[in-house]
What we know:
Elements: H1 7-13, H2 23-33, H3 46-52, H4 57-71, H5 75-96, H6 102-108, E1 113-118, E2 121-126, E3 135-139, E4 147-159, H7 161-164, E5 170-171, E6 190-191, E7 196-208, H8 214-224, H9 231-260, H10 265-279, H11 284-301, E8 304-306, H12 311-314, E9 320-323, E10 335-341, E11 344-348, E12 359-361, E13 364-365, H13 370-381, E14 386-390, E15 393-397, H14 400-412, H15 416-422, E16 424-429, E17 437-444, E18 447-454, H16 456-463, H17 468-480, E19 484-493, H18 503-507, E20 512-520, H19 525-536, E21 540-545, H20 549-559, E22 567-570, H21 571-577, H22 579-585, E23 589-593, H23 597-609, E24 614-618, H24 624-629, E25 632-636, H25 642-647, E26 650-652, H26 657-697, H27 706-724, H28 748-774, H29 779-800, H30 817-835, H31 837-843, H32 850-860, H33 862-873
Parallel strand pairs: 9-21, 9-24, 21-23, 22-23, 24-25, 25-26
Antiparallel strand pairs: 1-2, 1-3, 3-7, 4-5, 4-6, 4-7, 8-26, 10-11, 10-20, 11-12, 12-13, 14-15, 16-17, 17-18, 18-19, 19-20
Amino acid sequence: MYYKKTVKDVFEEFSTNEYGLSNEEAKNRLQSYGSNIIIEKEAISVWKIVINQFKSPLIYILVIAAVFTTLIEHYIDTGVILAAVLLNTIIGFFQEYKAEKAMQAIKKLAAPKATVIREGKEDRINSEDIVPGDIVILSAGNKIPADIRLIRESELNVDESTLTGESMPVDKNTEVISQENVPIADRKNMAFMGTIATHGSGRGVVVRTGEKTQLGKISQQIKTTEKERTPLQKRLADFSRKIGMLSIGLSLFVFIVGIIKGLAVTQMAVFAISMAVAVIPEGLPVVVTITMAIGLNRMAKKNAIIRQLIAVETLGGCNYICSDKTGTITENKMTVIKAYIKGKNFEFKGIGYKPEGEILLDSEKIQKDDNLYKLLLSGLLCNDSNLYEENGVWNVDGDPTEGALIVSAAKYGIDVNEEEYKYKRVDELPFSSKKQYMVTMHQIDDKYTIFVKGSPEKILGFSGNEDNRELNIQSIKMAEAGLRVLGFGMKQLNATSSENINLEKEATEGLDFLGFQGIIDPPKESAIEAIKGTKEAGIKTVMITGDHKETATVIAKRIGIFGIDSIAVTGQELDSKGENFLKDNVEKISVYARVSPRHKLEIVEALQDKGNVVAVTGDGVNDAPALKKANIGVSMGKGGTDVAKEASDMILKDDNYASIFEAVKVGRIIFDNIQKVVFFLLGTAVGEALIIISSLFIGLPLPFLATQILWINLVTNGLQDVALAYEPGEEDIAKRPPRDPKERIISSFLLKRLIIVGVVVTIGTLFLFWYKLSQGHTLTYARTTAFNTIVFYQFFHTLNSRSFEKSVFKMSPFANPFLYVSLILSLIAQISVLTFAPLQYIFGTTELDAETWIQTIFMSLTIIVAMEIDKLFRKRPTMVEKS
């Protein structure tokens, strides 16, 4: 731990000094330690993605069916089956073909050039040639090229937000830190690879390069972190496996029974293949992809951009959201909300940098207060930042805290430009983390006034007020309320010239104390409302932040995620309490503060080990491993780093927590619609399977050909199932509890309903098939009748599938107009396959007379009657069902 070592000890360890290494020694060390680069992860192979598309039990069975139909010379059947396989492969390939770019994005964070001292002289070299022991020179704007122990600094500030999540630049120093297990954010004598120097200058000795830096460790975590399979992926895999086993089992059963009954082997092979094709919902992989793509577009309208298509549904099953604080839950705009002067507590309205808002005293709007004017004027003048408006949006050029002070003065009505012109600045002492105060001196006519701002303790110490004890108590109360408290003072000088004024001495003696201003990054109103909504939806929000524990806890209480039994912990406390503490208490902890990337990853893993579906938000490099490990990683579109975006599944365009909840609601609709599609498709599959088995046992010929089954499953069904993906969602979607990750796609409730559908379809179809044969019609005509009947059953079953609870007659036909378009197109396709000669040849059909058409339609309507009766007497369970 180099932060615990003195500069002398570090020099000795690396055999170096302030004059740097020799060129020869640097060359030897480069060979020994290797280049200062982040090694990229091996790119995913295109062929591997293609092969992955065939790793499904459903595809295996279809391929085997294609082989068998080829062997028995049913080439048309072979062509249609292989066309179905090819279609699924193409769609699956484009879904999975997303390059792993997180490592390339991390590599971009490395500085291309760096200034070092070698042979006692400054030298500009490629950052990849830096070695441990090099002395690096830092100045404002430089990207830190390696992990460095600082040996010299002058007002050096470093932006470490991408690494630690800390929103404010960190004041650096060279002092030894004696504590154990100090978080990265508190290692003030270190500078880390990939961060940026924002102010001042410094020098340091390189202690870690490449993969051994903190950035390199994160890159290793990304490479070794396996993406958790989504609940839908697990359920679809389980569903496919069971359907595949059922398909093989039923096919073997049908084949064996037929052979025992003395039927020809070739005939029974066709029966078995038809059974396999019937049971498998060939269109399911396609329609699941389309359903999620529709959800992707819906989420985009809610400011959520989905990078991984499978993540669309995952959000719907989410029951934990681990969120950043700054910019996601809060505005990321420092705002003065309170001022204290001589026993008066002033309240400031308005959020952000827009210079508008009332100032209240005892809930009444103030008109004028001389003491408040002096306090706010001090904050305005003792200030190096600027407020500006661009495209209707107010922003700060400079320090966010100073921006808040400018805005508070403007709310009182102080004209910024007028006061700066009136009070001409003639001297200053910049803010220093060591001194903890800033001083500016201003000339008004021939008089000089100094204004001082800084920590409350310092300003009170400079004033020598008799009531300092009471003022200290007041500043502590404001700090406990989560405010960043600044004290202010001023002093009129008697000097007639600024040349002989000792500014530091004058500022630290006999200061007139003006008061305190309390500043906070306020929570977004939309986030507060969204968190209320997530609570109603059974989703728990956890805050993970680089900020201090006290500040984070206050914000958590304000937004409603920290209750009486909640726990707040720091990363340091997690380390000291041992790994079992997190495992035992992870579902009780609501706030994690000052945590490292390792902690974030451990938090996600601990929640997942408890069976939770976890969404994680993040914007920095430090968030990338947790984003990748989470069931759904959510990065920020405005302020997020490329690394975070590439590791995530979803990007928020507006960096707003409320957009996550909107996406969750869309995700729930998507799973509902997938269940509706599966119910719709399996209604046919169950019916087809029962029809084939029943016809075998009662001695009827095969009612369908394999090509006809594929036509039903892929063409006529393929339009309605896509239409069901456009269903707008049930009314109670946002108030349901989250689904259990183990909930089956086909619950026992839906399974019973599928049996009802299968029985109704089997009885009606077989009856008409038998009836046409008994009337002396040809086998082709009877098969066409059965084929047409089951297609119309599906037409009407589409209406049943729109809701598991609502009656067909209570649903608006205009809520999903595409459904009716699909029914019309399917009807045209069905008429074509019965009347167009080339299609008749391929699918073994013939034209039907008007009487048969009427019989077919009226028989098919019985499915609506059956489902309406079932909906009336049987309601869907509100509790999720586990497998």
